[in-house]
Design a protein that fits this description.
Its cofactor is Zn(2+). Belongs to the metallo-beta-lactamase superfamily. GO terms for molecular function: hydrolase activity; metal ion binding. The chain has about 280 residues and is of the alpha/beta class. About 25% of the residues lie in helices and about 25% in strands. It has one domain: Metallo-beta-lactamase, Chain A (4-Layer Sandwich), CATH 3.60.15.10. It contains nine helices and 14 strands. The strands form two sheets. Strands 1, 2, 3, 4, 5, 6, 7, 13 and 14 form a nine-stranded mixed sheet that branches. It has a five-stranded mixed sheet with strand order 8-9-10-11-12, with no helix packed on it. The longest helix is centred in the C-terminal third of the chain and has 17 residues. The radius of gyration is 17 Å and the shape is globular. The two termini are about 35 Å apart.
Length: about 280
């Protein structure tokens, strides 16, 4: 990865929207790998589900697409607002064809990718090759994906809309995608330049802030060493100023760490923002 902040001339600063579309209540022993090793009593924990939007007057980029109605229903996930409804309310329509970054191919990050049926889809090559390879059907991996969503990625590839990258990819000035692995083979994070500093959309390299703050890996992991290394990388980026704001993938405290957005409308209690940009509508 680059050791510098994303290139960001004044016209390439963005607003980052954090949108919560679902939730569930579980326990720590369900989400932290080998939780008894920590010698702590088990307790309840809330797990929220997000997608993210990067936008300014020139472009809009969607980061992950949440879980589909089917993906949420079969896993008993609560839907707070359906991602397609949220996209429409945000003025992000299939016709506008925003670029879509998929940080990894689990069901809660690829559901509704078919909503953007003409968009460029950006994904780490290692992620795509894993889920189209011989291990994807094995139980410990397969439970986390929806076959329909993988078909949509194949469709995008056949249509020339799937951009695969190795290691890192600059989508546009001020938007950099970095493959870190760990949780999945191609798990990626996204760095975004904003007027309030550089934002790191950590996605599921950091499900909960407790993970990287206390070195507690998530229960589902493809490569434990790479997961630990991703924690180290994010801590180093935060200390060095390469990432001023770390946005977790599932922590219920995420929204409270940032400025509430859309408090008087359908996104009340469901969204936060970083960076202030005049967006053309």
């Amino acid at each position: 990865m680059s050791g510098e902040s994303p290139e960001a001339p004044d016209h390439a600063l963005y607003e980052v929207l954090i949108v919560k579309h679902g939730t569930r209540q579980t326990v720590k022993s369900d989400v932290f790998l080998n939780f008894p090793l920590y010698g702590e009593p088990d307790e309840s924990i809330q797990m929220d589900y997000f997608f993210w939007v990067i936008r300014n007057a020139e472009r809009t980029v969607v980061v992950d697409t949440g879980y589909s109605a089917h993906g949420g229903e079969v896993r008993a996930r609560t839907v707070l607002i359906s991602p397609p409804t949220a996209f429409e309310l945000l003025g992000i329509t299939p016709d506008s064809a925003p670029a879509v970054i998929i940080t990894h191919a689990h069901y809660d990050h690829t559901g509704n990718v078919d909503y953007f049926d003409t968009s460029e889809i950006v994904l780490a090559r290692a992620e795509y090759e894993f889920w189209t390879g011989r291990h994807a059907s094995r139980t410990q991996f397969h439970h986390s994906i929806e076959e329909y969503d993988l078909v949509q990625l194949d469709r995008a590839k056949a249509e020339g809309r799937l951009t695969l990258f190795d290691s890192h990819h600059t989508l546009a000035p001020g938007i950099e995608i970095i493959q870190v692995g760990g949780h999945t083979p191609g798990q990626s994070v996204v760095r975004v330049a904003t007027s309030e500093g550089t934002v790191l959309l950590a996605s599921d390299s950091v499900h909960f802030y407790e993970e990287y703050e206390r070195d507690m890996p998530f229960t589902y992991v493809a490569d434990l060493v790479k997961m630990y290394e991703a924690f180290d990388l994010i801590r180093d980026m935060n200390r060095s100023g390469e990432a001023d704001h770390v946005v977790s993938g599932h922590d219920a405290e995420t929204l409270s760490r940032f400025r509430a957005w859309g408090a008087d409308g359908p996104f009340a209690g469901l969204a936060a923002s970083i960076g202030r940009i005049e967006v053309q509508r």
